[in-house]
């Protein structure tokens, strides 16, 4: 197809977007010819011509994701404001029947030769009718076959975590904790808030010297180090990431805790050396998947002694009226957490109870995760050049969009995060918990 170089591409593109979506773009648009259109005083969405080809070949979330990662879409101005404005335009809360679905259907129709005349202007704007290659940062976990096999889960974890420990040092800061912190005040340092979270987990688990702790998904070792150093436990941390394990072992050695802390590259399904007095699972259960969650809960129950406690710290989504309509955002699935799934907190509690646990406490920390993510984004932006050098421009763009959008999702109550304390209550019925469990913070 011969491409006509069109002046005022932004105006034409804005008009087409309004026609397809049924509403005007809520922010200003700048096209490849430097033309601009849309409301002034808002962040600017910068669109390269190749972004249109990506959307025509993969309408909806995946096309948008690929365009962002490749740099074919960008935002000038406040990223949080831009995402907030676009949230009601592309992504609607609820049953996943909002504008993204309508846009995907409309754009897919434009690929039909019989209807191509109706989309001639968009096709001319898009340029050569060839599919751009996906960005190299897209996950290659094998999109076919059963989910959550040992091999596939290891590949998925490697995609997310094995991008270089130095990169995560810049983003996470000295604490090296990749889960929601606990804030007493928004002015706290990230390190203090993460230390408070680790200590809260230890107190909820009732840790004391001589006990055995299993930390499932131990990351870079922060939880097991904190528990062994400050509470005197013997701890085992397991992860599927080789890079995390190497880093955690080095930290354990530097703390002089090699006699009390063991780091393993091991799947939770391969742990058979119970009983443990306590199990912590902090930001790991999102990787388990709905089909495996019952086995996950039952496996942790079996690893605990009677009276032992589980602290399950897990992101939750809002429930849907029709749960069969739940789908994982394609940007998250392809670029961030391959094969990850979220569940409503009620379903998580029910499955823990079905495994035999007595659920004794549920604490929502939704606002805390918004604060945490904003600090991570600020760290990433402050070290942008180093993060790009250590990974790739596309990888840095993935993390910036993912964390900023996630911060808004927590702040707008689209998703939440909860600490669930569950006990393998002995036959005597006495779990050994304080009478007032909300004294954890005392």
TrEMBL record:
InterPro entries per record: CFA/CMAS, CMAS, MeTfrase_dom, SAM-dependent_MTases_sf
SUPFAM superfamilies: S-adenosyl-L-methionine-dependent methyltransferases
Species this protein is from: Streptomyces mashuensis
Gene Ontology process terms (BP): lipid biosynthetic process; methylation
Residue stretches making up the Polyketide synthase-like methyltransferase domain: 167-426
GO molecular function: methyltransferase activity
Key word Cell membrane present: no
Protein name: Cyclopropane-fatty-acyl-phospholipid synthase
Record keywords, A-Z: Lipid metabolism, Methyltransferase, S-adenosyl-L-methionine, Transferase
Family: Belongs to the CFA/CMAS family.
Protein origin, superkingdom: Bacteria
Annotated CDD domains: AdoMet_MTases (cd02440)
Keyword check for Lipid metabolism: yes
PANTHER family per the UniProt record, alphabetical: CYCLOPROPANE-FATTY-ACYL-PHOSPHOLIPID SYNTHASE
């Amino acid at each position: 197809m011969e491409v006509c170089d069109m002046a005022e591409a932004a105006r034409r593109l804005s008009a087409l977007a309004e026609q397809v979506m049924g509403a005007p773009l809520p922010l200003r648009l700048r096209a490849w010819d430097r033309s601009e259109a849309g409301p002034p005083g808002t962040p600017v969405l910068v669109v390269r011509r190749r972004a249109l080809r990506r959307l025509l070949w993969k309408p909806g979330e995946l096309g948008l994701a690929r365009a962002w990662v490749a740099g074919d879409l960008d935002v000038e101005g406040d990223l949080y404001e831009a995402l907030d404005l676009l949230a009601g335009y592309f992504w609607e809360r609820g049953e996943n029947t909002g504008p993204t679905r309508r846009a995907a259907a409309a754009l897919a129709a434009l690929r039909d030769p019989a209807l191509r005349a109706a989309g001639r202007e968009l096709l001319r704007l898009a340029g050569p009718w060839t599919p751009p290659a996906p960005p190299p940062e897209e996950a290659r976990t094998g999109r076919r076959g059963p989910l959550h096999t040992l091999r596939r889960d290891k590949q998925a974890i490697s995609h997310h975590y094995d991008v270089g420990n130095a990169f995560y040092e810049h983003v996470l800061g000295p604490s090296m904790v990749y889960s929601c912190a606990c804030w007493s005040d928004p002015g706290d340092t990230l390190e203090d808030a993460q230390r408070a979270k680790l200590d809260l987990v230890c107190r909820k688990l009732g840790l004391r010297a001589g006990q055995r702790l299993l930390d499932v998904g131990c990351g870079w070792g922060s939880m097991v180090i904190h528990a062994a150093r400050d509470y005197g436990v013997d701890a085992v941390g397991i992860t599927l990431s080789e890079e995390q394990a190497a880093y955690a072992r080095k930290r354990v050695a530097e703390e002089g805790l090699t006699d009390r802390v063991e780091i393993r590259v091991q799947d939770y399904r391969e742990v058979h050396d119970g009983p443990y007095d306590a199990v912590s699972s902090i930001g790991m259960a999102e990787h388990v998947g709905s089909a495996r969650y019952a086995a996950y809960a039952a496996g942790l129950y079996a690893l605990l002694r009677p009276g032992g406690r589980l602290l399950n710290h897990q992101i939750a989504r809002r429930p849907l009226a029709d749960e069969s309509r739940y789908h994982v955002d394609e940007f998250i699935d392809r670029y961030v957490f391959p094969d990850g799934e979220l569940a409503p907190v009620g379903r998580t509690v029910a499955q823990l109870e079905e495994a035999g646990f007595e659920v004794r406490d549920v604490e929502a920390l939704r606002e805390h995760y918004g604060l945490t993510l904003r600090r991570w984004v600020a760290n990433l932006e402050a070290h942008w050049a180093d993060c790009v050098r250590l990974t790739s421009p596309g990888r840095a763009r993935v993390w910036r969009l993912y964390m900023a959008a996630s911060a808004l999702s927590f702040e707008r109550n689209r998703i939440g995060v909860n600490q669930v304390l569950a006990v393998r209550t002995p036959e005597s019925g006495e779990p050994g918990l304080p009478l007032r469990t909300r004294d954890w913070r005392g």
